[in-house]
Specification:
387 residues; 7-stranded mixed beta sheet; alpha+beta; binds alpha-D-galactopyranose; 4-stranded antiparallel beta sheet; single chain
Length: 387
Amino acid sequence: MEFTYQSVRNHFVERFNAEPMLIRSPGRINLIGEHTDYNDGLVMPAAIDKEIIFAVAPSYNHTSKIFALSFNEIFEVDVQNPQPVSDPPWANYLLGIVRQLVDLGHTLKPFTCVFGGNIPPGSGLSSSAALECGFAFALCELNAVQLSRTEIAKIGQWSEHNFVGVRCGIMDQFANMMGKENHLIQLDCQSLEYQYLPIDLSAYSIVLFNSGVKHSLASTEYNTRRAECEEGVQILKELDPSIKTLRDVSLNLLDNNRSVFSDLVFNRCKYIVEEIARVQRASVDLLQGDLQSFGKRMYETHDGLSKLYKVSCDELDYLVSLVRNNPEILGARMMGGGFGGCTVNLIKNRAVKSTIEQVSSAYRKQFNIDIESYVVHIANGTSLISS
Ligand code: GLA
């Protein structure tokens, strides 16, 4: 079920009998640079016009409560000493934020909160970063806590590592806080330096096909990939002690020392090193306005994720194969952590409708799943709607 500003506000007023502050917190896409963030590499995400809305206000009865509209569940938070819980799982994303703000020395007033939105969970659009960062932003507004957008992104990542248990990189939280309309963010995850790259989408649309698949192994496999990359770095350090992450590694170094790696670790490292270089080339494509070349690199990324990094699945591979030879589609690939979720497609405007029809019908035949598709627009990062 989807919730709008108005419905989130109305639920809040009915439940808590007060006028709330409203905050919007967007999902994200990533055009290129997948699984590179936790390897100190480059990424190219953007915030989108799918979002979670938070309604918040101080509470005057000493208890803090959060109501999740999509789960129809309420949860009471101990703002002095928040701890992870086994149920409901969604509370952990938010409890970690409270924990981190308290540990940073901020005193939080009791509060009431209602949230809901239209980011489909498990679709790889990072509803988790939207939850974390939107909530952190809301608590900062409510308590007059002055933190930079990058600091809020880091608090979100901390919560995901420590309260949710996924050792994610910084891309999702950064895109959520730093997104800018009509621009991709080229982020260097080593230095956190970034650049806004304008993307001219007057003739093209960004279309997401939601495979509808949510493999439960996604978060375990995510941490495993991260560990495999770290194993590669340990081996490479013996060859060159100055190497700290895969960002410091060239393809030549890898190829010349092929025999010291297992096939598995070699393939993981090869994908990451190639992908970091690919983002650099894709950024030149964008600056030159060459979306054709940019699109080809998206297909290359998909192949690397599928064959070397092994985070794709049959459904995602099929969705990419359906559009691959269609000249109206510049590029397509699986997006996000993998094992389900969406593919991102760069499609000529005139072909959007027909492509959606073709993909939907083929996918239904193949997997008996009614696919959801979203034409998304690049939006600003988390912001206050009304105070
Ligand atoms: C998830 C993580 C990100 C990033 C992507 C893969 O979305 O949260 O940090 O690693 O997967 O690129």
